[in-house]
Design brief:
303 residues, MetI-like fold, mainly alpha, elongated
Length: 303
């Protein structure tokens, strides 16, 4: 006769067979802040990917007769331009949507490349030590001597503006935090018993690093990457605001704020709406970052 399971026993059995659902999606749905962050970020990414489809008009199309048109909810607004127009009559909603493509592409690309570069250098420095550790960490110290934004401005001023140079500068200056974090954790992990046992059994260094060390640091790397994603987004906006980013004709949130700062008193939406887009995106990333920290840090995990 098959025993009958109680409700609690059935739930426990389902949790054991589908840990992903209960440890990730279940906890996400129980965290209102994380849900808000996920929804905002999903909307921003979807808008960036579907920009040619959902944008109401060409972001570069000008109409001087409609310049500085207020948003549609104001008395002087127009239903043709839901978020108004800028000083040369370009649709603000279309420019914000297309600006999300550039800002999110730069932020995600820089974060991925900087993470890969920093983790690689950190693993090499922490595992092998000696000359590799000294050289890589002294290079990292050189990058930490100067304020990040000042170093980025200096390098871009020398190399010139443009998307490629912006990506290079942000990646080259963004790997340091990952390298130092990973190095510190690897220094403690390379002498633990299971690593020593694997080494004695004849395992190669690459196998030890990939199989035994890397899985133990991936949680910290993910949390740091989420924080860096928000930081890169703000840095990219700041550099574009200063005219040191992509081509000025390309709509980005930072350049939109820069172009609208002289109209802040008589066309507040030109500078405010891109700023709100940056604020919401950074807020969403930070909310998800806090949730990931709680999920991945075993000292904060509540079963």
């Amino acid at each position: 006769m098959t025993p009958t399971l109680t409700i609690d026993q059935a739930q426990d059995q389902e949790r054991s067979t589908s840990p992903w659902r209960y440890r990730w999606w279940g906890r996400l749905l129980r965290d209102p802040a994380a849900v808000v962050g996920a929804v905002i970020l999903l909307v921003m990414i979807s808008a960036a990917l579907l920009a040619p489809v959902i944008a109401p008009s060409d972001p570069e199309a000008t109409d001087l007769r409609a310049r500085n048109t207020p948003p549609s909810w104001e008395s002087a607004g127009s239903s043709r331009h839901l978020l108004g127009t800028d000083p040369v009559g370009r649709d603000m909603l279309s420019r914000i949507i297309y600006g999300a493509r550039v800002s999110l592409f730069i932020s995600i690309t820089v974060t991925l490349l900087a993470t890969i570069l920093g983790v690689t250098f950190g693993l090499l420095a922490g595992y092998y030590g000696g000359v590799a550790d000294e050289v890589l960490m002294r290079i990292a110290d050189l990058f930490l001597v100067f304020p990040f934004i000042l170093l980025a401005i200096t390098v871009i001023a020398v190399l010139g503006s443009g998307l490629r140079n912006l990506l290079i500068v942000l990646v080259v200056t963004g790997w340091v935090q990952h390298a130092r974090l990973v190095r510190g954790q690897v220094l403690g992990l390379r002498t633990v018993q299971y690593v020593d046992a694997s080494r004695v059994s004849g395992a190669r260094d690459v196998r030890i690093i990939i199989r035994h060390i890397l899985p133990n640091i991936v949680a910290s790397v993910i949390v740091l990457a989420t924080m860096q994603l928000a930081f890169v987004l703000l840095t990219e906006a700041a550099l574009n605001f200063l005219g040191l980013g992509v081509d000025p004709s390309t709509p980005t949130w930072g350049s939109m704020i820069s172009q609208g700062r002289t109209y802040i008193y008589n066309a507040w939406w030109v500078i405010t709406l891109p700023g709100i887009a940056i604020l919401l995106t950074v807020l969403a990333i930070n909310l998800l970052g806090d949730w990931l920290r709680d999920i991945l840090d075993p000292t904060l995990r509540v079963l």
